[in-house]
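User: Second chain of the day. Same drill as before.
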Amino acid sequence: MNNLLSIEELTAKEITSLLESAEFLKAQRGRHLGEPLAGQTWAMIFTKSSTRTRVSFEVGIRELGGFPMFLSKNDIQLGRGEPIKDTARVLGRMVHGCIIRTFAQQDVVDFANYSGIPTINALTDDEHPCQILADLLTVKETLGGWDGKKIAFIGDGFSNMTISWMWAAKHLGFELAVAAPAAYQPPAEFLAKLDAPNVTLTTDPAVAAQGAHVINTDVWLSMGQEGQQEKEAAFGPFQVNAALLANAAPDHIVLHCLPAYRGKEITEEVLEKHADVIFREAENRLHAQKAILVALAKSR
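Assistant: Same format as last time:
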C-alpha cells in the first residue's frame, strides 16, 4: 500500500491488517517501541474545516516521531489558483508524506500521482476512508466484529460516508442496508460498479434498521451544502430516534462520525445514550490513522 486514497482501492486483507495494527497501537499508546516517522515531515493540506481529523493526525504524527506541517488553502498558492499537480511536485521534493482534506477526489489522486510521496485522503466529497476504518475498529471492539452482523446507514445514500461504507461491505462481506430518500440514493452506474448483493437500498428507515446491530448516521448536509433547505427537508423521516431504534437488534450500537446536529439527523436523547460508543469512535480516528501512517512508512 503506497497511498490511502479510498476504501474502494483497498483489499479485505489490507483493511483487516490496518485494523489489527490500530488495535496494537491503541494498546501500546505511550509505550511505543519505535518511531517509524522519525525525521519525517508530513504536510497536512486542508481546504475544509476540521476538528477530529486535524487533531488526530497531528497527534498521531507526533506520537510516531514525525513533524506535522499544517497548511490551509490560504497558507499556500493553491488558494491563489496554483494547479494541484504543481503543488504536488514541489512538496514531493521537500516533505515525506501528505494528508489532504478537500472537495474533489481527483485532487487527492493527482497529488499522489505527481508528488511521488505517500498520500492520505483525509476526506473528499467522494470518500472518507479514515473515518470508515475508525468505525470498523469501533464495531470490532464493541461487537467483536462484523461477521453475521447487519449494519444500517440512515441518511444521505450517496455521501462520502455511505460510499465508503458500501465499499467496505463489498470487501468484507457484511450486510449493509442503506435508507435514504429516493432522490438521494446511489445512481445505477455506481451500483453496477459496486456489484455487491449484500448491500441493499430502501426508502424506509425502519426496514433498514430492522434487526440491525449497528445504526449509523451522518449530517444531512455535507460541508459545502449548507443552506440547501430543499435537500434538508427531504430527510425529516430519516432521523435516528428512539422509535427507529426500537426496530434494531437488542445489542445494537449507534455510530455518528460527528459533528452532530442534535434534533436533525439524531436526537439529543439517542446521542447521549450512545455517547460512550460515539466518542470512542471519534478517539479511534487517532489509532486508525496511526496504523495508516505506519503502513505507509513501511512501504517507502
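The beta strands are 41-46, 67-72, 97-101, 119-121, 150-154, 175-179, 199-202, 214-217, 253-256.

User: Great, on to the next one.
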